[in-house]
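User: I'm putting together a small comparison set for a docking exercise, and I want a reference complex before I start. The sequence is below, and the ligand is PRP. Could you produce the 3D structure with the ligand included, as structure tokens?
Assistant: Of course. I'll restate your input first, then give the structure tokens for the complex.
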Amino acid sequence: MRPLRIALTKGRLEKSTAELMGRAGLDCSALRDKGRKLILPVGEMEAVLAKAGDVITYLEHGVCDLGVVGKDVIMERGGQFFEILDLRFGKCGFALAAPAGTDFYQGYQIKTIATKYPKVARRFFQSKDMDVRVIKIEGSVELAPLLGLADGIVDLVETGATLRENGLEVVEPVADVSARLIVNVASMKLRKKEIEAFAERLERELG
Ligand code: PRP
């Protein structure tokens, strides 16, 4: 049988994941010293480094058994998999933000929202029975209200510095976000023992 394969989100989450797996006793030396390699041994497992959305794609197609991905991507993309553990790093939140000092909700005209996360934004306003126009932006969404394209944004807020430095403020929090351990549906049945043992090792470290 091939080693259990875990897809890791490249970048910020990758470092925290390696750190947690290291604390849990897995040998992460190859991950720390990876160069440009994309598949690396981690303990008895194999780690695959991928972009967040692709972590879910590889997992759903069954070529990876496990994945580490942000709840933001899970909320926006959805999919068929089990979410089995909150890893408690990569903490931030989705928020509705608008230019500081303005009343976002005032007036009757339909508001325009810029976001990298159109599904999350639509769901949030649907839950308020509020009609909005959603415009998808690829990054630095804070620009949209500054340029007069949008009344507000739905975006990730971590320290709040990006909002502050661009004259924006949180109107309302939308959802908490952190990294999650996800599992392919078939792997959860076929390799349940190994997967549970791995999740328990991580969970023990999380305290
Ligand atoms: C994220 C997010 C905000 C910023 C929030 O952007 O979209 O812009 O971080 O962090 P802060 O509250 O600590 O300032 P990211 O750096 O991922 O780049 P992006 O805007 O290109 O998506």
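The pocket of PRP is lined by residues 116, 139-140, 142, 155-162 (CB under 6 Å). The mean pLDDT is 97.
User: Thanks, that's exactly what I needed.
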